[in-house]
Amino acid sequence: MSETPSNGETPIVRPRRSPAAIRAAADDFRTADAQLRAAGGDADPKAAKRNELLVSALFALGGLFGVGFLVAYFAIKLGPKHGDVLDQALKSNLALGLTLTGALLCLGAGVVLWVKLLMPHPQVTEDRHDFFSTEEDRLAAAADFNRGAEEAGVGRRPLLVGSLLAGTVPLLVAPIALLRDAGPMPGKTLRHTAWFKGSKLIDLTTGEPVKLGMLAVGSLVTVMPEGATVEEDATSPTILIRLRPEEYKPVKGKENWAPEGHVAYNKICTHAGCPIGLYEQQTHQLFCPCHQSTFNVLEHCKVVFGPAARPLPQLEIYLDDEGYFRAAGDFNQPVGPSFWERG
Hints:
Elements: E1 2-3, E2 12-13, H1 19-36, H2 45-75, H3 85-118, H4 135-151, H5 158-178, E3 201-203, E4 220-225, E5 238-242, E6 262-266, E7 278-280, E8 285-287, E9 294-296, E10 302-305, E11 314-315, E12 317-319, E13 325-327
Antiparallel strand pairs: 1-2, 3-4, 4-5, 5-6, 6-11, 7-8, 8-9, 9-10, 12-13
């Protein structure tokens, strides 16, 4: 091929390499590799075996350090019931830091020694060519890559490969174990609250059970199930609102859910989980202060504005013989923001 300079001088002719020339260059490369293989220890089988055992020992030691990291993570308990919290934290950090450092150091040293002691180190000089590769060049590069992988000893040194895998497995498992610190699994807590059949509605402010006649028409109060606290049952807070009996328009299946005009809806917004507490008596609407989602109480807290995608769950309540409000059970659907498990 030819290349015409921009200054108008005589074109530079650069011959393309033929497949035969490429194969000849590859043969020369292999010859140089064979001559320099002693740099990788292969000229002395005993030295090669000794180096292989050394690298494998480093990989195995790195694996032991990795196992020690996992043991230290689970064995050293944190919390007041396990002794001095600061002392336990210092011990945990020290053990985790030392074992992780040992694992990374041994694995890194093993890889470095593998390259230094067991892999060939040929010195190759190649002429500068065009800035693009022909099909023959690409095929030759692929052949060189495959040959390099073979000469690296990955296939013929199973001890090294096995020890490397064994040494890295604990470090791969460690991040999974650390996910434990993200908190407990939710289980079924997103689908159930602390409300149960027969639980009294307790005024969150006074701590007293709510009785018929305590609320004026148009007023509301935040209630919790008897024996529950907001700290332990954050999904249970519920708004109890008193409407005029004729204002409640029951749907099929909820005819008896509003005794004497009292309705109860979960306090957690179905958009992002903010607590709802703003009630406009004239329009009978509940407002979320975070993103202005608006729910119509007269229409079973249907969303009339804002980003919330579904109504607030309603709690079925009834009056006992003494006039106290009680829950007929838990909410009939998950409370709070929508999540992917709903369906």
